[in-house]
TrEMBL record:
<dbReference type="InterPro" id="IPR007110">
    <property type="entry name" value="Ig-like_dom"/>
</dbReference>
<dbReference type="GO" id="GO:0005912">
    <property type="term" value="C:adherens junction"/>
</dbReference>
<dbReference type="InterPro" id="IPR003599">
    <property type="entry name" value="Ig_sub"/>
</dbReference>
<dbReference type="Pfam" id="PF07686">
    <property type="entry name" value="V-set"/>
</dbReference>
<keyword id="KW-0325">Glycoprotein</keyword>
<dbReference type="InterPro" id="IPR013106">
    <property type="entry name" value="Ig_V-set"/>
</dbReference>
<keyword id="KW-0677">Repeat</keyword>
<keyword id="KW-0732">Signal</keyword>
<feature type="domain" description="Ig-like">
    <location>
        <begin position="115"/>
        <end position="315"/>
    </location>
</feature>
<feature type="region of interest" description="Disordered">
    <location>
        <begin position="432"/>
        <end position="456"/>
    </location>
</feature>
<dbReference type="GO" id="GO:0016020">
    <property type="term" value="C:membrane"/>
</dbReference>
<dbReference type="GO" id="GO:0007156">
    <property type="term" value="P:homophilic cell adhesion via plasma membrane adhesion molecules"/>
</dbReference>
<dbReference type="InterPro" id="IPR013783">
    <property type="entry name" value="Ig-like_fold"/>
</dbReference>
<dbReference type="InterPro" id="IPR036179">
    <property type="entry name" value="Ig-like_dom_sf"/>
</dbReference>
<keyword id="KW-0472">Membrane</keyword>
<dbReference type="InterPro" id="IPR051427">
    <property type="entry name" value="Nectin/Nectin-like"/>
</dbReference>
<protein>
    <recommendedName>
        <fullName>Ig-like domain-containing protein</fullName>
    </recommendedName>
</protein>
Amino acid sequence: MDPLPPVVIGDTITLKCNFQTEGTLREIAWFQVTEGGNAKQKIFTYDSVYNTSFSNMEDTNKREELVYHSTVRLPEVQLQDDGLYECHVGIYSKGSRDQLIEASGSVTLSVIVPPRSISVAAANSPAPFSRYEAKNFTLVCIVTGAKPAPSVYFKRDGELIDVFPAARSSSLVGHHSKASKRNRSENPVLPRGDVDDTKIQKSLYLQNQVGKVTQLRENETDSMERGVEEASRLKLESTTEGIPETVVSREFPHWVQSSDPLYYFQHWQQVAGDGTMEVRAMLTWSLNPQLDNEALFSCEVNHPALSMPMQAEVTLTAPRGPKLSTRPSKAKVGDTVRISVQGFQLGPSATKVFPEPLLTWTRVGGNLLDGSEKHDGRELVLERIPAELNGSMFRCTAQNPLGSTDTHTRLIVFENPRLKKGREHFIGTFKNEISQRGGHSALPHTEPPGSAERRL
């Protein structure tokens, strides 16, 4: 049997069975081994008695002269075609038609499937921003639909990232465990380097190793402790600031890490129901908002079914000036008003704010209409607004781990002509009834409880 290279799903492949004999050919039969070797399905038969060919793999019958070799063509192979194939040859012993000799050979067909999708997300998003506390940040690359599992690696601004392997789990549920969370909390990162073949090999090699989580260096631990003390001092000395229409936080204390962080890599994979693999790769480091803002991160995938790497890119971006929209534009008393975020003032290299920002609504100088102090979400709904909200200022705060920004909008409430006309009509009718009753109130006369009994 001729060996077969891996075949990409959808391609056409030809199975070849070569044989030599001095006897007389009796038959050739092809089988696909199924159910883990417990069953065989006949897919092709050649019978020299009838000199005919019949195939279960094709719609038409073909007459072939099969003497020294036999071939079976599988058009547009699918995942279910993956597995073992056997060729059985039966011959009559030389000079005799009474003795039948059979020989067989086998070959394995490996069907490979390129990744169906690749995406990059931020773990634990949306999340608030803190200028007083250093936080770990994790990018998650999710690759689905591949067979076999692909090799996944990360780049920053086009350069391959050297990573330390963190504690690895064979299950996707593993990254929710306490141990994994503890590892991530201790995950700073490796220095970046130039792109070359040795680093690519090193990065791919580290994916298959189960490494020990490296502890924070002593000077980094001391820096974190100093950051906590500095944060406490800054909180005590903080003063109230005047807030303009839009403000972007750009003040960071001394907890900021060095320009060469340590990157930690975690990798999980599991088999999907269709036999393909789902892979999740996680890159964790101590975020530096000053240096990481506008940084381009890419997750790239190598797979034997791909002629070039497959990739997904994200740009880390602090939110800038949410663009607010108020509907209706001229709100009247009793209307339902919706104030929503339509977009952001994006930087020159950003297409959207990533990670997803946390949006919080507050009313300057008071509570919201429902009595709550704040509301989270992309839209603030004010139902049946009263005239008292006229001139109220509403603040939308957008924040992600890279920064925060505030945008304000003032609500102008106009008189509602329908409500005004209704009130005037009610007041006029009430006055007419009073005048017709001789100046007495039109309200019905009521007696105190028990007065009827006393009167009797």
